[in-house]
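Methods — Computational structure assignment.
A single polypeptide chain was analysed. Its primary sequence is given first, followed by the predicted tertiary structure written as structure tokens.
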Amino acid sequence: MSSFEDRLLNGIQNVSDFPKPGVVFKDIMPIFLDAALFHETIQHMAKMVKYYEPTHIVGVESRGFLFGLPLAYALGACFLPARKKGKLPGPVISHQYDLEYGTDTIEIQKIAANKQGRYLIVDDVLATGGTAQAVNEIMNALECSVVANLFLLEIGFLKGRENLAMKAPSIPVLSILKI
């Protein structure tokens, strides 16, 4: 691992039994409290995805917003949020999905669809892949091209990469760290 990856991994704290007993939450707040590390993280993400030439960054609620917005700015791309049910006005496309500890629904506004766009889905952690797959499904329903899925951290034993590959084998899955 590079020194950047070591610093990044040290910036992620484990919080046991949150939000439910048995879940180990990956707290990324220390990354945001280190301005240099946060800046380097966004630069690293931008380098990772530049090849895919994304025109739109889809930030997944809520921690995907924290990386997606500055990444969109760094790449000169548009940003659109994938939000939890009931948080967006106007017509939306929804998809219900399973989490490692329950179910949820994610939505994107229909007006966000640009069929000529190249969409990069961004979230902080890839666990089972349920949330990212739900966003991929919505983008597919909107007839938008997803060029890749990008994560700060991938939790390997939860098989999110494999789950995403089963549903959309042509969409690359990228992560800075894998544990």
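Note: The longest strand covers residues 145-154.
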